[in-house]
Amino acid sequence: MISAYWRSTRSPLYSFLFTIPLFLIYEIGIFLTAKDNMLVLRNGADALMRQVLENFGIIGLHGIGAIFLAGFGVVFFMQRKYWRDAEVHGDYLLLMMGESLIWAVGLYYFMSNVYVLFMNPTGQVLVQQVTLAVGAGIYEELFFRVLLIAGVAAILGFVFQWSDKMKRWMAMAIAAGIFSAFHFLGEYADYFSFDVFLIRFFAGLALGSLYFIRGFGITAWSHALYDLIVLTQTTTQT
Fold first, then answer.
1. Are 43 and 119 in contact (CB under 8 A)?
2. Are 14 and 8 in contact (CB under 8 A)?
3. Closest CA to 48 of 223, 168, 157, 181
4. How many CB atoms lie within 10 A of CB 181?
5. How far apart are CA 101 and CA 98, in angstroms?
6. What is the residue range of 93's domain?
7. Which whole-number Å values give the CA distances from 6 to 38, 56, 99, 115, 146, in the listed order?
């Protein structure tokens, strides 16, 4: 059973089903806080993604969400033959939640006592900050792990003719550096600190490794749960 769980839950199908709650929580949070003029995610990943979408005429708080669903729709169509024969186990989804929590706690202790949220929270109220934490989990992982690693790996493979494993791991390291640097860009960014840059870089390596090992869904939930753990820690201490 363990091998079947490990293999099945890395698939795009389980990632899609598992991240639907994150997506809904985020979109509902955006809807509830939009009246307070909250701008989706206040970080470099969201700013870049929204800017790219605006260049194609897609403007608004929910444009990225629409692209997210459309992207999974494309994957679903391309792999429909595989998914037609796939069996969805509800208990696997529950196990994935528990596994994500374990990875999140592990990441929390890996980061030691340095409470660095990956999302640059700027929300005025707790609902906004929770929304930002959830959004950071799903959209930062979508951009920095799924899209960026694939894009950089394709470039490295074309230029250097490296093996598949070599180009993917090098792409993951480059994506981790970009992931860290982007938190210092934009109007709501942190002031640059090399120590904080290194912390987020190593966190990016950890999340990238988790993405390779366990897939997008568990990585997104682990990222979101980590941010929620840190948010709870910092909120209860103030």
1. yes
2. yes
3. 181
4. 16
5. 5
6. 2-237
7. 38, 39, 11, 31, 19
Domain count within the chain? 1
Per residue in 173-214, pLDDT (tens digit) is 999 999 998 878 766 667 888 988 998 899 999 999 999 999
What predicted TM-score, i.e. pTM, was given to this entire model? 0.84
HEC assignment per residue over 154-219: HHHHHHHCCCHHHHHHHHHHHHHHHHHHHCCCCCCCCCCCHHHHHHHHHHHHHHHHHHHHHCHHHH
Q: Report which of 170, 139, 143 is spatially closest to residue 154, judged by C-alpha positions.
A: 170
Angstrom distance (rounded) from CA 73 to CA 63: 15
Beta strands per DSSP E along the chain: none
**Contact of 11 with 88, CB cutoff 8 Å:** no
| Residue that the structure tokens 């070599």 belong to | 166
Q: Is the dihedral of CA 173, 177, 180, 183 positive or negative?
A: negative
Radius of gyration over every alpha carbon of the chain, rounded to an integer in angstroms: 18
Q: Which residue, among 117, 107, 98, has the nearest Cα to 43 in the 3D structure?
A: 117
Q: How many CB atoms lie within 10 A of CB 3?
A: 7
pLDDT confidence of residue 118? 64
Say how many C-beta atoms besides its own lie within 10 A of residue 146's C-beta.
18
